[in-house]
Amino acid sequence: MKRIVVLGGGESGVGAAILAKDKGFDVFLSDFGKITARYSQQLAAEAIPFEDEKHTEELILNADEVIKSPGIPPTAPIMVKIAQRGIPVISEIEFAGRYTDAKMVCITGSNGKTTTTLLTYHILKNAGINVGLAGNVGKSLALQVAREKHDVYVIELSSFQLENMYDFKANVAVMLNITPDHLDRYDYRMQNYINAKFRIIRNLTPEDAFIYWQDDPVITAQLDRIKTEAAMYPFGEHFEKNSEAYVDDNGQLVLNTDHISLTMPRTDLSLHGLHNLYNSMAAGLSACLLDIKKEDIRRALEDFDGVEHRLEYVDTVDGVRYINDSKATNVNSCWYALESMPRNVVLILGGKDKGNDYTEIEPLVKKKVKAIVCMGKDNTKLLDFFKDKVEAIYDTHSLQEAVDTCASVSQQGDTVLLSPCCASFDLFSSYEDRGRQFKDAVKRLNR
Fold first, then answer.
1. Are residues 195 and 149 in the same domain?
2. Do both 348 and 415 map to the same domain?
3. Got the DSSP string for 93-123?
């Protein structure tokens, strides 16, 4: 009997273990950290053997195949030993793809992929499609393949998830943008990160589609070097050669595919800002390629509510607007947030730096930001970079201290923007935890 070892006891790992069990494999799951009660109870109920807070090598290195959770770097000691043994390593997505013939809409990008994924899912679900949501959002793809069975899956894919995908194939692949992110994972070499992202177009055939932002210099440069057989659907703010989605001179959003074409006023889109225009274009093109009716696409683009922790309005306190953009874990995400803001921004930055280059946001900071509040265990890099670029900069080491500082230095008409540029793991368990704590701290200001 083939032995499958799953590393990581979170959503993707537990889902992969359940699918492997259902397919009759000898399954063992190991997590070097503590598995939460929810997942340990799920594994126990499924009678899947597991361990946590350790990796027992004799139970792992006898695997015929390893399914690795995306957060585990290939440099982890157990991964090095697995590689030395020549044991194949795949992702949960790769594993799940072996057992379904559902259509796959796969979305990646340094920024905007969660919004685009949820918007695409919203369009399809409201059109009556039997659709599943997976990847970085929703439930494990493997668990859904095992127990739910959908006709279409909309999957948000990070570079980490794409690393160990080989035979998996998208039907519609979406590439929103590529900007520096997670470079600590990629030996601080941008090309390594680009290569990981572009694994999304592996195995595409002429019957498949590749949707991408045509004004991204990194994407266009990579497309000059590699080829895909897929039909190409570039999008941009204005019409250019080969554009399949753009805004025309009359302010109409135009979506063109071989399947369906539609137009609608840009002002009718529920999501505002240039970055959300691109997200809406990518989701709209994906829906057109799946033959969703025009009226269903228009209606869904008009009534989508947005994503928690992404440019989320929290409250107005003493005339100051508070915006939660905790999902901005890299510099380019912060750029998009600042691009959509008015002037007089009090900006909260900080967290676990991933090799960030802050020069990208420098012009917008000088134009729109009146003060920066740094929030993290060690803010030295931020303080050194921005000290001469804004009128005021503050050093804080907790979220409550940061919000209190923002409240004291802002005045009516200002906007306090949490858009940290950094990962959350110095002070918080996740960007969601950081965003929720921010919203709680803002609510306390109103008491």
1. yes
2. yes
3. HHHHHTT---EEEEEE-SSSHHHHHHHHHHH
CATH number of the domain within which 17 lies: 3.40.50.720
Cα separation of 254 and 261, whole Å?
A: 8
Vertex 6 angle, CA 423 and 91, to 5°: 60
Largest interatomic CA distance in the chain: 68
CA 44, CA 64: separation in Å to the nearest integer? 23
pLDDT (mean) for 362-372: 96
pLDDT in tens, 402-418: 999 999 999 999 999 99
User: Binding site annotation covers 376?
Assistant: no
| 238 Cβ contact partners less than 8 Å away, ≥ 6 residues apart | 246, 247
How is 23-73 classified by DSSP, letter by letter?
A: TT-EEEEEESSPPPHHHHHHHHHTT--EEESS--HHHHTT-SEEEE-TTS-
Q: How far is 423 from 437, CA to CA, in rounded Å?
A: 15
Q: Go through the chain and tell me how many residues it has.
A: 447
Report the C-alpha gap between 305 and 119 in whole angstroms.
9
**CATH code, 433:** 3.90.190.20
SS (H, E, C) 380-446: HHHHHHHCCCCCEEEEECCHHHHHHHHHHHCCCCCEEEECCCCECCCCCCCHHHHHHHHHHHHHHHC
Q: Kindly state the tokens that stand for 316.
A: 């107005």
pLDDT at 181: 64
3-class SS at 273? coil
For 48-58, how does the pLDDT look when each residue is reduced to its tens digit (9 = 90+)? 999 999 999 99
Together in a domain, 346 and 418: yes
349 and 244 in one domain?
no
**How many structural domains are present in the chain?**
3
Q: Is 10 annotated to bind ligand?
A: no
113 labelled ligand-binding:
yes
Same domain for 279 and 187?
yes
Phi, psi of 254, deg, nearest 5: -115, 130
Q: Helices 294-303 and 113-126 meet at what angle, rounded to 10?
A: 130
Distance of alpha carbon 400 from its chain centroid, rounded? Answer: 27
Is position 111 annotated in a ligand binding site? Answer: yes
CB atoms within 10 A of CB 1: 8
Residue 24 known to bind ligand:
no
